[in-house]
């Protein structure tokens, strides 16, 4: 099903939603279909209810604004097919080394522990910053977003 039809089906079932503002996206590596499918399924099944991104890299890309409470997202799988719609319920910015164990748990990946979260995200953010020719350290701000599935 195409994204626009999926959104319109959601709006038909939820007439209280009057906006047509949403972002359609997949999570995971750009070319990693298996990872995108896995993360989409974790979200759809309510296991992954949070994500973390690098605050400083939002400033680099003016076409990708910071997430806002109340925004809708259409989660795509590795084949760009809609799997569910989320609504952002919390957005906070904290240094990498202050991301909580609770947030790591809600990210829903692996053991859901903070140590594993820090190890995996350190590697990921270090590479993202390197791609932008910036060093990464544990004090840099991260955007911690919490969402809920509102349609599947």
TrEMBL record:
One of its GO terms (molecular function) is histidinol-phosphate transaminase activity. Keywords: Aminotransferase, Transferase. Its EC number is 2.6.1.9. Coiled coil: none annotated. CDD domains: ASCH_Ef3133_like. It comes from the Bacteria. It is an enzyme of class 2 (transferase). This is Histidinol-phosphate transaminase. It comes from Companilactobacillus bobalius.
């Amino acid at each position: 099903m195409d994204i626009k039809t999926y959104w319109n089906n959601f709006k038909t079932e939820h007439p209280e939603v009057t906006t047509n503002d949403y972002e359609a996206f997949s999570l995971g590596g750009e070319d990693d279909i298996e990872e995108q499918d896995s993360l989409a399924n974790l979200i759809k099944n309510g296991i992954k209810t949070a994500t973390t991104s690098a605050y400083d890299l939002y400033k680099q890309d003016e076409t990708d604004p910071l997430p806002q409470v109340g925004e809708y997202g259409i989660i795509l799988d590795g084949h760009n097919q809609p799997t569910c719609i989320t609504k952002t319920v919390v957005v906070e910015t904290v240094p990498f080394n202050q991301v909580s164990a609770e947030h790591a748990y809600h990210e829903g990946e692996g053991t859901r522990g903070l140590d594993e979260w820090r190890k995996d995200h350190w590697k990921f953010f270090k590479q993202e910053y390197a791609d932008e020719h910036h060093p990464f350290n544990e004090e840099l701000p991260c955007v911690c977003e919490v969402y809920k599935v509102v349609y599947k």
